[in-house]
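Fold this sequence, please.
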Amino acid sequence: MKNSDFIKMTTLGVYSIAFPVENIRQTLDEAVLEDCQNVKYEILKNPMTGKKIHELDDGIFFSIRAEFKQVTPALLATKSYEIKLRDENTSEGDVELLALSELYQLLPPSSEIYNVFYDTSTQLLMMNNNSKRAKLALSQLVKVFGSIGVKSIIVSEEKLGLTEKLTQFLQHNTPLFSGLYFENEATLKRSNIDEKAYLSCKHLNTERGKEKARKALDEGFEVQSLKISYLNNKFKIDSDLNIRSMYWSEFNRTARRLNGDEAAKPWIFDDYINQQFEALQRITKFTILEFTEGTKLEEFL
């Protein structure tokens, strides 16, 4: 585990959740997360600051570690084959259970860290992972507060309208986003029964680039994702409102400083996450909050 693991964020999972903010820091500081589906969860004490919970303007930051055994399909198949060779009379169901049991004993533990921002003003929780394991971590977190009000944000293509927004941009130079910069790059997709086709369209600030995209849209292509930036921090937003492929301009330099011998690591870390939180607030304001106003949320717990 490196210090830089506590600032990593290349993808963004966003959830609507109403935590009781009057005692949120104390509750999380004292929280013991339950194990779930053979995964151990823990709210970590930050190795640079010595704190679990970091207070921000209108929010907090903390990190959760998930510890688990990485059982891959290939490992499970190999171990199941070994068990069958030892005892041909073992039933298929028992073979898999025995294989899992042996692998859990043999494999060394793996771990991953989920960095979490919670915006108390919008009640949005933002986490650097969208996996099933990360969502299980969130479900254990919610149990600490006795709350079940966690909802993932779902929005229809008609409401999101990235294809329509791009069309208006290409035809009338209508800005796609207020408060964010469009990097003049889009990935388009076209699906039918037999195949899926993808097309990368760059330089959409030039007439040649625009013409290529216009022609593709006329031929039935739709927006798969758009490349956006804010203060040199770049990311992609797709037609399902997922934010991914995030590039933070100060990450590499900050990671080197945090992993090095500098004495000012607590200050460096605090400064970085405060700037990152400010950027995330702006990104969610002009994408998720703008597009989903009035839309329904879908419970996943």
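The radius of gyration is 23 Å. The chain is about 40% helix and 25% strand.
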